[in-house]
Amino acid sequence: MNTYQKTATFIFRLVGGCWVAFFALMWSLYAIEAAMGLSVQHYPLHIILGNLGYIALGVFAVLAARPLGRLIGSGLDT
Fold first, then answer.
1. For residues 10 and 34, what is the distance between their CA atoms, to the nearest angstrom?
2. CA 34, CA 18: separation in Å to the nearest integer?
3. How many other β-carbons are positioned within 10 Å of the β-carbon of residue 28?
4. Whole-number Å distance between alpha carbons of 34 and 37
5. The 3-state secondary structure of 7-74, one letter per residue
6. What are phi and psi of 60, to 5 degrees?
7. What pLDDT digit, counting tens, does each position of 1-52 carry?
């Protein structure tokens, strides 16, 4: 892998990891507040499922970072 491919792989992993960490943190804080009995807004199921889809997208970006990085960075070293 050339430098551009390694950089693209790193960026995909960084963005995917931050994406997953953000949604996981927000929903874990929501669950903690609800478990403590604090007044929280109750979200409909389609919002929760949509956010789970966003988490899956972030996990996919982390897992597919190497092939995507190779694809993005191919041909840039010439």
1. 36
2. 24
3. 10
4. 5
5. HHHHHHHHHHHHHHHHHHHHHHHHHHHHHCCCCCCCCCHHHHHHHHHHHHHHHHHHHCHHHHHHHHHC
6. -60, -40
7. 888 999 999 999 999 999 999 999 988 888 898 888 888 788 888 888 888 8
Give CA–CA dist 64/39, Å, rounded.
39
Residues 62/6, Cβ–Cβ less than 8 Å: no
Distance CA 32, CA 25 (A): 10
Q: What pTM was estimated for this model as a whole? A: 0.77
Q: Which residues contact 74 (CB under 8 A, 6 or more apart)?
A: 5
Cβ–Cβ < 8 Å for 13, 62 = yes
